[in-house]
User: Fold this.
Amino acid sequence: MPTNLGPLKQLLGVWKSEGLGWNMIALPFATEPVPNPNPPPPSFALNYRLLVNQYNEQLKFKHVDPKNLVPNRGIQASNIPAVDTDQLLGALDYQQTIQQIAVDDFPQSNKRGAIGGGIHHEPGLWLHVTNENPEGLDIARLATIPHGDSVLALGKSSTSNGVSTIPSVNGLPVGVNQDLTDPRNGYLAPYKNFTTIPGQPGSPFKGTVTDPGFPGFDPVHPHRLLELANQGVNVVKTTTLTVDTTTPTGGILNIPFVVRQANAASMKSTFWIQELADKDKHGNPRMRLQYLQVVILDFFPRRDGLPGPIRWPHVSINTLEKDLAASKPYC
Assistant:
């Protein structure tokens, strides 16, 4: 296995998941006006729908150059004479492909896509910063999305024994009253459709999952399905990779239509590479990969007359396992 990838080296290979991936996104969508309990104005249109997908995924990582690091050329001009101060990066090429196996939205539309159809394609790079790193940011993720988005997220890696704690995530829109039991809260109506509230009717989106113990996808606490996937799994060691576009020099660039309609303003993602106590037939530890990603979207100005913006979390989670046979050419 190449040694110049640092914390990224265990990513090499092919990771697959069937039915454990979930995606939730609010999208602009023309709707009829609804009564507004907080005038002015007397009524407003929600003009968005909430889309939830359950999906299969393949995530493939290969080394850009197993023999050489990528050099960034520089000098230390404060020296007299100046000296070369080159930065060296380990680089992984990756490609993510996702097919939805179940989908629902509310209000319902005819824009949900076909079952079995591809809903995401993402080529990109992961970088390991080996030196010249006074900021302490030792990893970076570069991604391009066919919707017209280009992402640079930077962050840090860490290693720990056992399974890592999954951070809690609230998937409800930011900037509105988040009480799902309040009937006056029109902005949360689509979220209620996917949430069971004690004492009130509701039906979690179960997709194709038939396990009676499966709690369903919860837009309020989407991270809990990652916790559920860890139950009963003996994780020996975890490498955590956390990257964020809000770090200095990070960011997202979008094409003009995306900026006008549903601007992707920021992204934070955490990947957990898990080494399990279980062994494969060759005596090697089984490997799992979990991730939790939140993209913040900004679209139409709020319609309820209250101050401040509304921000819409776009949440994706999954638990994958390394396909050892498919991974051999890449490791």
In short: The helical segments are 189-192, 224-230, 256-262, 324-327. The first strand starts at residue 13 and ends at 28.
